[in-house]
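re: the backbone from monday

yeah here it is again, tokenized this time
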């Protein structure tokens, strides 16, 4: 994959996987913009010699514009990516997820970038009556985070129609895999499960554990991003689901980890979390048709690969 790329949030969990994916595919130049709020330099250790790293906040227009010089494609992954955090700390979440996204678009247009691929979120759907969730359904965000990510989609499509910047939004469903940081209470549930099973401790499940998610292995999300970057200009301005089409409950996920490890550790249960969606599952028809989406990892394969990574890096 030739060309020059910039990944905002490239020191984060998904962004750093994308950086490695781009380099694997032969990308000419890969620029990372990240303020290290929740990302880490160590996520890029193995590729640090091949990456141009800018410790920059996406709200800093001048720095962002300069970093985008000569870049053809921007992957916008930087965000404060947490539902509970967006409820407890409304201002930073709004500022980064909405104003930061506006700045990325403004800088991209001014720098002559061809395409922006945006990390949108399935949380935009809220609780739908019907599963799987299709892009044509009405959105119904249940948290500030979900509303912010949806606003980002609108901005993407308006930048395409008003300014001729090509944009593609990918609504990620719950992504998991190596380097997802389990150190914060806001961390993704599977990263917390991985840590708990290796520590032989009980995780806390908020609610009855029967809430379900379309857990998607990070390498499938990387592959989808690379396809979105290369798809014909006719996809510009559109939104695609970025899930795999499956649906697993939290209880099933914790049971699978216990089976893999050969242990019996019942989970603790706490009150349901405000803003959480009950069920989530992607309809992948449009991503398959227009982007050639072809997920490679089953849930169990992804879980085994992720668990081995956490074990090896403890
Ligand atoms: N992980 C998921 O399941 C999931 C689901 C839906 C959408 N998303 C989206 O995917 C993207 C990546 O999420 P992730 O799970 O890798 O989270 P992450 O926290 O690992 O990555 C976010 C990155 O953005 C950086 N960042 C935050 N604020 C910044 C700022 N102001 N300027 C520059 N960099 C900043 C952080 O330091 C971090 O490296 C986010 O946009 C998130 O909303 C993730």
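seq for it, each position gets an aa:
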């Amino acid at each position: 994959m030739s060309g020059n790329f910039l990944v905002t949030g490239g020191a984060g969990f998904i962004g750093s996987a994308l950086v490695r994916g781009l380099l694997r595919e032969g990308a000419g130049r890969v620029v990372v913009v990240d303020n290290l709020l929740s990302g880490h330099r160590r996520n890029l250790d193995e590729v640090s010699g091949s990456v141009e790293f800018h410790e920059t906040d996406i709200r800093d227009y001048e720095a962002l514009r300069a970093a985008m010089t000569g870049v053809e494609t921007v992957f916008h992954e930087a965000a404060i990516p947490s539902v509970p955090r967006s409820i407890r700390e409304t201002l930073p979440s709004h500022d980064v997820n909405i104003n930061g996204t506006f700045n990325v678009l403004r800088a991209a247009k001014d720098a002559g970038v061809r395409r922006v691929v945006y990390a949108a979120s399935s949380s935009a759907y809220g609780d739908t009556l019907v599963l799987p969730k299709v892009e044509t359904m009405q959105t119904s965000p249940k948290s500030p985070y979900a509303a912010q990510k949806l606003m980002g989609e609108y901005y993407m499509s308006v930048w395409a129609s008003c300014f001729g910047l090509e944009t593609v939004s990918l609504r990620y469903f719950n992504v998991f895999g190596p380097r997802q940081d389990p150190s914060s209470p806001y961390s993704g549930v599977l990263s917390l499960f991985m840590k708990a099973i290796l520590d032989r401790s009980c995780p806390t499940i908020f609610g009855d554990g029967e809430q379900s998610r379309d857990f998607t292995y990070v390498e499938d999300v990387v592959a989808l991003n690379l396809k979105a970057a290369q798809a014909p200009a006719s996809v510009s301005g559109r939104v695609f689901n970025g899930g795999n089409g499956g649906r697993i409950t939290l209880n099933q996920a914790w049971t699978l980890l216990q089976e893999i490890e050969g242990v019996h550790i019942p989970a603790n249960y706490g009150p349901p979390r405000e803003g959480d969606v009950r069920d989530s599952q992607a309809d992948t028809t449009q991503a398959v048709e227009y982007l050639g989406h072809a997920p490679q990892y089953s849930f169990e394969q992804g879980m085994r690969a992720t668990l081995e990574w956490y074990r090896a890096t403890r």
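Residues 9, 11-15, 33-39, 57-59, 77-81, 96, 100, 119, 121, 149, 172, 174-175, 188 surround nicotinamide-adenine-dinucleotide (CB under 6 Å). The longest strand covers residues 115-121.
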